[in-house]
Amino acid sequence: MVETLQDLYLGFSVALSPSVLLYAFVGCVIGTLVGMLPGVGPLAGISLLLPATFGLNATTAIVLLAGIYYGAMYGGSTTSILMRIPGEAASVMTCIDGYAMTRKGRAGPALAIAAVGSYIAGTVSIVGLMFLAPLLASFALRFGPPEYFALLILGLLVLAYMSGGSMPKALAMAALWLLLGMIGIDTMTGFFRFHYGLVELGDGIGVVPVAVGLFGLSEILLTAGQATPPAVMKPRLRELLPSRQEWRESAWPIGRGTVLGFLIGIIPGSAHIISSFVSYAVERRLSRHPERFGQGAVEGVAGPESANNSATSGAFVPMLALGVPSGPIPAVMLAAMMVHGISPGPLLIKQQPELFWGFIASMYVGNVVLLILNLPLVGLFVNLLRIPYPLLYPAILVFCVLGVYAVNGSVVDVWIMAATGALGYLLRKFEFETAPIVLGLVLAPMLEMSLRQSLAMSNGDYAIFINRPIAAVMLLVGLALLLLSLRPLLTGRLDWRRRLGGQAQPTLAEEKRP
């Protein structure tokens, strides 16, 4: 413990030096702006600015890129809450209740709770990164393709079970986009599947155009179809702070989101996206009033925002401790470290303690910077709602088109956004949940790859999923959830028969009366 504190003191002496502090601040500002722009996201921001770090020393470069990463996690909540447009994919779940709070005139409290929850989750998860990195990284190494397949299947079933709505509907939406997620070049054989002559579909259907279409464009279509558009909101200063009740309702979701996000962040994949889905599902299932979700429940903002920021720190555990990236963003940062002559892995802490502990300390500093940046700007962000809707919605549509086009410079992505916007409009009219669609699209490549790798390992024998203890346990839990989801249907059928029987007996008795 004493040695860890001494190392942390060394890290703060590096992180609080003027040059590192300046680049941490610059990274946080750029990350916040990148997160607010629809369609850009942290991966694009880091990739675009990676060449700018070549003239910096290794510590400063990694601090700058990390600031962009977790700054984007903060910034993505702003457009999600105010306009129902996810600035980046991890903010999809924040759109649901964050925008509903905005419609009720509670945009200020939603933004404040998102900022505070992100700060708490980010800070606590850094402590976890500092103390638990070796232990948790060694456990993650026990996961092979069969375990990943079982984990992803379990994740889909857990989310469908906890959604609180119809499990068949949720699974149907996820299955639809699992199928559509197979479009593109097969990574194992190189075969170009289901492309219909469109070269742009080589990388598959992008998450960004689908998310922006489902949540941004469909909202514009729904509002435009109303006989009377919603009134323009004029926020007051005293309404910008959350009430005591909102703080109380947010406390446990922030805590649970922090733990869930950090644990999920360690597992390879799109952890920051998956963690926000899991957190939202857990909060809805645990709530005493699940009907409030989707109508402006503050827990639906606090939990997912905390989870995706906590997952950011969790994703650094295998990267720093093992040199194994847990997703595309850590992979880019790993490449940046190697460009600067750093060899990530178990020896990094001993060979270059200044870099490792300076990076850890800079994350503490970055979280404070982001809190200072975001809380005073809540009033400025909320004032966007003073813009009349006839002017605001065309501007939102322009941002959607520009943001989606900027990701790959592809007009096909814009058409995908338009198609999914129309689809989202129809699905919301028929009361289907649209969030599982995005999750299915994210999980499809990982699910297919882990299944095929598992079968390649076993020469086509499906028993590998039962013979591996961790995979077998997760699949059994998923089966139990399926059976639990069928219980209301069976109970309802029995009640229906009992009611028929109960109605029949009095009728016979009445016939026997004189």
Structure characterization notes:
- This protein is 74% helix and 1% strand.
- Strands 1-2 form a two-stranded antiparallel sheet.
- The protein has helices at residues 2-15, 18-36, 41-49, 58-83, 92-103, 107-140, 145-162, 167-180, 207-224, 244-266, 271-286, 299-314, 316-322, 328-339, 348-351, 353-374, 378-382, 389-408, 411-429, 435-457, 464-467, 469-512, and strands spanning 184-185, 192-193.
- The longest helix is centred in the C-terminal third of the chain and has 44 residues, at 469-512.
- It is built from 22 helices and 2 strands.
- Helix 3 runs parallel beside helix 14 (328-339) and helix 9 crosses helix 19.
- Strand 1 and strand 2 form a beta hairpin.
- The chain has one domain.
- The protein is mainly alpha-helical and 514 residues long.
Structural class: mainly alpha
Helix content: over 70%
Largest sheet: 2 strands, antiparallel
Q: Could you list the spans in which at least 5 consecutive residues all have pLDDT below 50?
A: 503-514
Q: What is the 3D form?
A: globular
Give Rg in angstroms: 24 Å
Give the neighbour order of strands across the main sheet. Answer: 1-2
Assembly level: single chain
What is the H/E order?
HHHHHHHHEEHHHHHHHHHHHHHH
Count of helical stretches:
22
The tally of structural domains comes to 1
- Beta-strand content: under 5%
**Average pLDDT over all residues:** 77
Count the strands? 2
